[in-house]
Amino acid sequence: MKIVIIDYGAGNIQSIKFAFQRLGYEAVLSKDAEEIMAADKVIFPGVGEASSAMKKLRESKLDKIIPTLKQPVLGICLGMQLMCHSSEEGNTQGLGIFDVDVVKFSKDVKVPQIGWNQITNLKSDLFKNVKEKEHIYLVHSFYAPLCEETIAEAEYGLEYSAALKKNNFYGTQFHPEKSSEVGEQILRNFIEII
Amino acid sequence: MLTKRIIPCLDIKNGRTVKGINFVDLRDAGDPVELAEIYAKTGADELVFLDISATEERRRTLADLVLRVAEKVNIPFTVGGGISSVEDVDILLHNGADKVSINSSAVKNPQLINDLVAKFGSQCIVVAIDAKQIEGEWIVHLVGGKVPTALNLFTWAKEVEERGAGEILFTSMNHDGTKDGFANEALAKLSTELNIPIIASGGAGNMQHFTDTFIEGKADAALAASVFHFKEIEIKDLKEELKRNHIPVRL
């Protein structure tokens, strides 16, 4: 099993690497297109601001590679948002894998949302052995609205996508690597049954 | 529903926990990593490591500690204490910290908040504010509450939000160490006037204090040290009590 974490300079990569290590898997950091294409599983992390992360992705030409990947790909947090059609943050054109536009939370709620929220309406093997309403950890100011590709929902002023799936592409708005045992189960599912 | 967070705070000196740790089941009571693991397993939502070292090697020791914590702990954690530059933050986040907390350096150089937010994003920049109520007015203090500034708490908090900080950690120096409850009036005012999460700190003595700070203080999270370190309050019991009071928690 070769797990590659895409290293394009915009992610809390160490935490993800350690999370796999706790599960007994060695994950490799790489920005090399061939190494990424040869992996069994690909993790696409991301924290920070959308337009500057997208710029880094373009500079490394990975924006062309990621949408062509055939193996399971998991985007986390900003990684998931960049896999969408666009983001309101920095008026950013995304990779267009998920057919949804990322927008900012309204001022009716505190922004960013920071903390543990519940996931509901779970619709994928990614959530095998994960119960409805389990808690996961999120930090974000922008969100993907509900859409056909939604496979988990969360509520923060409104219902939105906590996770997305299209073909071999998966994305979680939450941080499985920081979501205690629930997050570990989700990462294990991605590695072992997806 | 987003839950209210319970955050134990660990004081760190030269890579070791400082004082007030009374866990009989710890092999090494001074090891922050072991303590962090126990808190993660027993229901803490997040951890804060506050470095109070004053040595030359401080930066490297703290960066090493962050790496060791990230390796073992599966919940988010924040690191604070003496952080004063973009380079400081870069290494801590790179080593696996989820957020950093800045305090005096932000007061001395408010532009640092903007610089950090531009480089790393709002979501990982916490600004800690220590304040003391003097003749009715809340005044921002530095150096653990010893040195008064000319800043009013609410004015400064607003500026911190406008400069892009993702969260505010407010410690009342009037309440810190008293075990008499949190500064709920000031907290509620912060929470109402600002639109970013507020962490309450200073004054936790019993479980009712946490209920009060979430309801009256409108806090998004509550931080405490000694009540957890001395096992005066078990986090699981606390969360069950909060749940009975209809406060959303992760159990």
Automatic annotation (TrEMBL), chain A:
Keywords: Amino-acid biosynthesis, Cytoplasm, Glutamine amidotransferase, Histidine biosynthesis, Hydrolase, Lyase, Transferase. Heterodimer of HisH and HisF. GO terms for molecular function: glutaminase activity; imidazoleglycerol-phosphate synthase activity; lyase activity. Its EC number is 4.3.2.10, 3.5.1.2. This is Imidazole glycerol phosphate synthase subunit HisH. One of its GO terms (biological process) is L-histidine biosynthetic process. Residues 4-191 form the Glutamine amidotransferase domain. It comes from Arenibacter troitsensis. The gene is hisH. The lineage of its organism: Bacteria, Pseudomonadati, Bacteroidota, Flavobacteriia, Flavobacteriales. The active site is at C77, H175, E177. It holds the Pfam family GATase.
Automatic annotation (TrEMBL), chain B:
Pfam families: His_biosynth. GO terms for cellular component: cytoplasm. InterPro entries: Aldolase_TIM (IPR013785), His_biosynth (IPR006062), HisF (IPR004651), IGPS_HisA/HisF (IPR050064), RibuloseP-bd_barrel (IPR011060). It is an enzyme of class 4 (lyase). The keyword Amino-acid biosynthesis applies. Its EC number is 4.3.2.10. It is found in: Cytoplasm. Gene3D superfamilies: Aldolase class I (3.20.20.70). The active site is at D11, D130. It comes from the Bacteria. It catalyses: 5-[(5-phospho-1-deoxy-D-ribulos-1-ylimino)methylamino]-1-(5-phospho-beta-D-ribosyl)imidazole-4-carboxamide + L-glutamine = D-erythro-1-(imidazol-4-yl)glycerol 3-phosphate + 5-amino-1-(5-phospho-beta-D-ribosyl)imidazole-4-carboxamide + L-glutamate + H(+). Keywords: Amino-acid biosynthesis, Cytoplasm, Histidine biosynthesis, Lyase. One of its GO terms (molecular function) is lyase activity. Belongs to the HisA/HisF family. PANTHER family: IMIDAZOLE GLYCEROL PHOSPHATE SYNTHASE HISHF, IMIDAZOLE GLYCEROL PHOSPHATE SYNTHASE SUBUNIT HISF/H IGP SYNTHASE SUBUNIT HISF/H. Heterodimer of HisH and HisF. IGPS catalyzes the conversion of PRFAR and glutamine to IGP, AICAR and glutamate. The HisF subunit catalyzes the cyclization activity that produces IGP and AICAR from PRFAR using the ammonia provided by the HisH subunit. This is Imidazole glycerol phosphate synthase subunit HisF.
